[in-house]
Amino acid sequence: MKQQEIMLNTLIDDHILNGFSEKEIGDDHLFSGLETPMKLNAHELSDEEKKEKISGLFAQIMDVMGLDLTNDSLKGTPNRVAKMYIDEIFSGLNPANKPKISLFDNSYKYNQMLVEKNITFYSNCEHHFVPIIGKAHVAYVSSGKVIGISKINRIVQYYAKRPQVQERLTNQIAIELKSILNTEDIAVIIDAKHLCVSSRGIKDDTSATVTSYYSGVFNQPHKIIELQNYLNQ
Ligand SMILES: [Zn+2]
Predict the structure, then answer these.
(1) Which domains are assigned to the chain?
(2) Which whole number is the average pLDDT over 105-126?
(3) pLDDT higher for 220 or 11?
(4) Count of alpha carbons within 13 angstroms of residue 30, beta-carbon side
């Protein structure tokens, strides 16, 4: 285990992180392999302050690359990029944007798996900041409560809108749903293309990456086969 992880696990055990209680930091902000690594003061600046800073810094990157920022086509780019980062493609870094989820009683007594498949998402690889484009398939078995189907999509989108690695994205969606639905019976499968693999580097345009998270009943081979049959329909 890396030194940093040992330290952070110890801190988490003590429920204190650099002087902040777990409650103050919030459930989106714990340091472990599951959590997106963020600074303790990640939410000190307002969104507007962040956009202003990013705009200035992105203008510097463009300037260093020799681009003429007085050009009509380019001069608005730093602002556009800053707004896109904060309001859109990285909006999932702000816990204030976490979808509000309401649960309903399972009044139909439906006790088989529910599968929400082919949820299209756009994320970004945290190593290159270029898109990851994919589909998420989510399944759960109700433990008494059910969730509005569109909320499953919203949870996928919330975690996708962060700099990501696909393994973490898969686990974050699964753990969030487990916690919301109070069930172990969750499966998440993600099938995605990474533009850092296709548009640069090895330039492989045909490969895709598949990750999965199976827990509870989804560890049983016949349930995995049933799920895979639905996904293949
Ligand atoms: Zn990458």
Answers:
(1) 1-44 (no CATH), 47-89 (1.10.286.10), 103-232 (3.30.1130.10)
(2) 94
(3) 220
(4) 17
pLDDT for 86 beyond 70: yes
Task: Name the 3-class secondary structure at 35.
Answer: coil
d(CA 221, CA 104) in angstroms, rounded, equals: 29
Using a CB cutoff of 5 Å, list residues around ligand 1, an ion: 125, 127-128, 196
**How far does residue 86's CA lie from ligand 1's centre (Å)?**
20
70, burial (CB in 10 Å: exposed 0-12, middle 13-18, buried 19+): exposed
- Residues with a catalytic annotation lie at 125-128, 166, 194, 196
Q: How far is the CA of 164 from the centre of ligand 1 (A)?
A: 9
pLDDT at residue 14 greater than cutoff 70: no
d(CA 207, ligand 1 centre) in Å: 14
